[in-house]
Design goal:
By secondary structure, the chain is α+β, with helices and mostly antiparallel strands. It is 50% helix and 22% strand.
């Protein structure tokens, strides 16, 4: 065993030292692997950042109520009377003698993206008096909260980064009405930062949705109160056709819908580009074996095994793919980790979030690079192991 390991070490050293002799092909292989890894990580980081933003918006002690069968708020309709009934349910949190509940309306309005200067959909949300209290971690950083019954809005910091014209103090026109931006709020790592908020009654009037909500949010005393609350609602015929779930479960479902396509794209593009990188690796490694045929034959004559030649060739392929992986991971991390962007959410509105290159994504990228190196080294390694010593030496 010691002798075999020594042989592998010698062959590997010879292979790695000879890489500069095939500099152009080796660099091409490294770059191909690096590009594959960068593209894979781009979409995985995009998907991961979007998922974290959506999933991080939910709480276990807040319930979301929407029409049964609705996959998004825009498809849901819930009546005012139903909100009043739900607010009397068991385990509903009270503040100053009032239930902490908010009937809400979400509509789509146009905005101008800073990056492109083009129109894009934005979420405009009408919320009740308790709407802010239902959202943990939200704080006003400029100005103040809107006053009920007025055409005042507050703007999420994420939306403000992505869209022009919504700066604090500005007056804007939306759907034929003039609105004053009286505040900017932050809710780091949540979907709320991508929204405009106004008083629910004013939003209902402006968008001609009187006495209609799309969702309701209700705070419970504790997460453990949810089963009893759902059982109570199921027994009341006036609440038939409603779906009740925790806010965390609701956003987890939204995240799965929003990120699945990006994950699929990541692996499809990654696999397609990996085929190209693999072709380059095979070409490089076959050329490496051909260029060192005389050396391999000499080593075989003095007692080196075919396994040593195979393993040395495999290690060379792994070194090249490893260099490509390191380059790709470095490029991806520097280029877009933590970078803000926006894309369509499940409600067909722009959702602002940040790319997130997690350790799991880096691990997945390294595994793909390792696979390229392994597959790219197998056939050339077999060729090296099958070299016929006397014939190859004579040919050299």
């Amino acid at each position: 065993m010691a002798s075999l390991l020594k042989q592998i070490g010698v062959v590997t050293a010879l292979n790695v030292r000879s890489i500069p002799q095939r500099a152009a092909m080796s660099v091409a292989t490294v770059v191909a692997v690096a590009l594959t890894i960068t593209v894979l990580m781009f979409f995985l980081a995009l998907s991961n950042g979007l998922a974290k933003t959506v999933e991080g918006s939910g709480a276990d002690d807040v319930v979301v109520v929407l029409r049964e069968g609705s996959n998004a708020e825009l498809n849901s309709v819930v009546g005012r009377d139903q909100l009043n009934i739900l607010a009397t349910g068991p385990g509903v949190r009270q503040a100053d003698g009032q239930p902490v509940a908010s009937g809400e309306l979400l509509v789509i309005v146009d905005g101008i993206k800073r990056s492109t200067g083009t129109k894009a959909n934005m979420p405009f949300r009408g919320i009740g008096l308790q709407g802010l209290a239902l959202r943990k971690g939200v704080r006003i950083t400029q100005g103040r909260m809107f006053r009920p019954g007025t055409n005042e809005i507050v703007v999420g910091a994420g939306l403000l980064r992505e869209f022009a014209g919504f700066e604090f103090g500005k007056s804007i026109r939306i759907r034929g009405g003039d609105w004053q931006v009286v505040g900017v709020f932050e809710a780091p790592g949540t979907v709320y930062e991508s929204e405009l908020w106004s008083d629910i009654a004013v939003a209902q009037s402006l968008f001609n949705r009187p006495n209609v909500y799309q969702t309701m949010k209700i705070a419970l005393d504790a997460p453990t109160a949810l089963p009893a609350f759902k059982a109570w609602a199921a027994r009341d015929g006036r609440l038939k056709g409603l779906e009740i779930l925790s806010e965390r479960d609701y956003f987890a479902r939204q995240a799965a819908q929003s990120t699945g396509q990006f994950t699929t794209i990541a692996w499809l593009l990654g696999a397609t580009m990996a085929v190209g990188a693999l072709a380059g690796a095979l070409n490089t490694m076959f050329s490496s074996v051909a260029a060192r045929s005389a050396e391999i034959a000499t080593l075989r004559i003095i007692g080196f095994s075919g396994l040593a030649a195979f393993t040395g060739t495999m290690i060379e392929a792994l070194v090249l793919s490893g260099l490509g992986a390191l380059l790709g991971v470095g490029l991806a991390y520097l280029a877009f980790n933590g970078r803000g962007t926006s894309t369509l959410g499940s409600g067909f509105t722009q959702l602002a979030f940040k790319f997130d290159v997690s350790p799991q994504i880096i691990g997945a990228a390294l595994i793909m690079a390792l696979a390229i190196g392994l597959v790219g080294g197998i056939l050339p390694g077999i060729k090296a192991a099958r070299q016929k010593p006397l014939l190859e030496l004579a040919g050299g």
